[in-house]
Amino acid sequence: MEELVSLCKRRGFIFQGSEIYGGLQGFYDYGPLGVELKNNIKAAWWRTNVYERDDMEGLDASIIMHRQVLRHSGHEATFSDPMVDNKKNNKRYRLDHLVKDQKADVITKVAEAMGQSAENFPAVVAALNANPAQAAGALRAAGVRDPFSGEVGEWTEPKPFNMMFKTTIGPVADDESYGYLRPETAQGIFTNFKNVVDSTSRRLPFGIAQIGKAFRNEITPRNFIFRVRELEQMEIEFFCAPGTDEEWHEHWLEKRLSWWEAQGVPRSKIEILDVPKEDLAHYSKRTYDLMYDYPTLGHEEIEGIANRSDYDLGSHTKNQSELGLVARVEENLDSIAKLTIPHPETNKPVVPFVIEPSAGVDRAMLAVLSEAFTKETLENGNERIVLKLRPHLAPIKVAVIPLARNKAELVDLARSIKNDLQKLGLGRILLEDSGNIGKAYRRHDEVGTPYCVTVDFDTVGKGEDASLTDTVTVRDRDTLAQERVKISDLSAYLQAKLR
Ligand code: ATP
């Protein structure tokens, strides 16, 4: 992981946010190559989930939302993590992170004090969350140390900390004029359900897809881009008739696993966690968490696929009592819309069930980069670092390299080849005229460029072999094979390789 983080900074994938002022914890900036990789991941997701299906629509809703949305969604009341304070130094920690970071013997003591086995960490966390007073005693008795000072802490009773970012809207800051930065993109889909149905004439079953930023004031952001405060999500809300939800849930589990596989994140590295009933979120009937085996971190959630029942639309609709809702929802006297759709069989208005595959773009980046990061020992004993990204994800598809940067003839031809390749719409093609060819190859191995095209003296008829005139060398990132290709064939050659 450390090597990957260093490569990300060195080569321009990911930088610490606000770095020149000392950095802001939990915020990252995506650099010249990071933005390309991120866009390619999002495009791959959109292609698979919107374009290649016949039952999906897209959406891009606003980030700041009316406080009523986040009130009726349940976020104001429940979108919180348990937090403990160390009275000795006034540091605050997320309770489960604090315990997880302790030495094994301390974790065992905490688990025992809570009447649990340390083997089953989720059960320990659930017990801590459920019994705040007992939790504080357990932390003290076990001698839980402060990760910052390293000393045994003086721990308070855990209390819930709401993770939503609240912001003032408009010039007057009073009790009414605030909204929230959305903590998930999902709510924008639910609030637009009726708009999408009315404007597209969709019938059940169908889904709405959205990619966008979400904000969570995480108590302890950490592990590089794994846990950040400004994140991006790729979410689908798939609406179906009650009773068909379980089948659709399985459908989406399968679809999502095969999508990850196509991005180079194999199934063998993903554990499917069927979340135990007692750990389910308030809206969920059943949830599968996809737990990817991140280097250093181990199995952590990369995507959640939840059966949200009729909770969300049921919470946001008016006339709740007439709709035969299955989920237990809070009364809503604020909504002005009836969020129903004709049942496909009876044609009677029904509040559909929702299956939600929700993946983090940042966590996807980290997984894709982790899988691609490879160290190889070459025949000559040298080591090379190579990012074996799938070509459709590579930030730069082809680097066109003039052998000498000070020979106008080579540089001009390389530029014209670059311009022609760029028009193919394959993604970014780079003119790499920074000098040394060896360095250029090393750099493009490290950033995952699938092909390097070199323009040399033979290309322009000034080399030793006249038969090589109007040909270039194409170097394959993975096999290191070099092939001489006619310039006139180059577009078709690369198109076939990169599509
Ligand atoms: P965790 O338990 O790890 O905090 P979560 O269960 O709160 O995650 P969800 O609310 O299910 O996460 O969000 C859906 C997806 O959004 C997650 O699977 C993850 O990929 C991404 N995500 C959530 N929180 C963060 C975060 N703080 N940083 C980066 N990605 C996140």
UniProtKB/TrEMBL annotation:
Q: Which Gene3D superfamilies match?
A: 3.30.40.230, Anticodon-binding domain, Bira Bifunctional Protein, Domain 2
* CDD domains the record matches: GlyRS-like_core, GlyRS_anticodon
GO CC, sorted alphabetically, is: cytoplasm
Q: What is its EC number?
A: 6.1.1.14
> Transmembrane stretches, by residue range?
none
Q: What reaction does this catalyse?
A: tRNA(Gly) + glycine + ATP = glycyl-tRNA(Gly) + AMP + diphosphate
Per UniProt, substrate binds at: 94, 184, 231-235, 356-360
- Which segments constitute the Aminoacyl-transfer RNA synthetases class-II family profile domain? 3-391
Q: Where does ATP bind?
A: 216-218, 226-231, 301-302, 360-363
* Keywords of this entry: Aminoacyl-tRNA synthetase, ATP-binding, Cytoplasm, Ligase, Nucleotide-binding, Protein biosynthesis
Principal subcellular localization:
cytoplasm
Under which main EC class is this enzyme filed?
ligase
Subcellular localization(s) per the UniProt record: Cytoplasm
In its UniProt record, a GO molecular function of this protein is:
glycine-tRNA ligase activity
Q: Family per UniProt?
A: Belongs to the class-II aminoacyl-tRNA synthetase family.
- Summary of the function given for this chain in its UniProt record: Catalyzes the attachment of glycine to tRNA(Gly).
| Stored PANTHER family | DNA POLYMERASE SUBUNIT GAMMA-2, MITOCHONDRIAL, GLYCYL-TRNA SYNTHETASE/DNA POLYMERASE SUBUNIT GAMMA-2
Q: NCBIfam families under this entry? A: glyS_dimeric (TIGR00389), PRK04173.1 (NF003211)
Known partners and oligomeric status? Homodimer.
What name does the UniProt record give this protein? Glycine--tRNA ligase
> Source gene?
glyQS
